[in-house]
Write a structure and sequence with these properties.
Length: 156
């Protein structure tokens, strides 16, 4: 993954597709362009956010910017996973206790116990469904998926 602050638009060869949402909050300038579009508080907000992120995905793809399209996909994926977490865990806390200092910025339990799931929040569950549908749709765009596979094969 690129170093924080690198302008990946100027150096797309430095971009690593990674797994899942990896790098979504570090790859510039895309983080600054897409983060303001990302919201999931209610289904209405999630619908607007998913549409804006899909529009950004299409614009990036149309201009030949694979990295931007992949980052928009990651924000759609993150909309799903975060809304799903809030649907399952009131307050959004999935694990007990703070992240160990040497593991900050990394995802995972890091030896912490998972907190029990609360009653499912149907509002957040619907927000998650909206993002999942948009995420699934971009994963079906052949131009994007073949381009992403080629980039991953060449650059990681």
């Amino acid at each position: 993954m690129a170093t924080r602050g690198d302008d990946i638009r100027a150096h797309p060869e430095r971009y690593r597709v990674g797994r899942g949402e990896q790098g979504v909050l570090t790859v510039q300038p895309y983080k600054d362009e897409l983060l303001p579009l990302w919201r999931f508080r209610t289904p209405d907000v999630a619908t607007q956010s998913a549409a804006a992120l899909r529009s950004a995905f299409d614009a990036y793809l149309g201009s030949g910017d694979l990295v931007g399209a992949d980052m928009a996909r990651k924000f759609l994926q993150m909309g799903f996973t975060r809304a799903r977490r809030y649907a399952n865990h009131p307050g959004g806390r999935k694990y007990d206790g703070p992240v160990p200092a040497d593991r900050r910025g990394q995802s995972g339990a890091h030896g912490r116990a998972e907190l029990p799931r609360g009653p499912q929040d149907p509002v957040k569950a619907e927000s998650a469904r909206i993002f999942k549908q948009a995420w699934d749709e971009v994963e079906q765009v052949q131009e994007y998926t073949s381009w992403r596979a080629a980039h991953k094969a060449q650059h990681g």
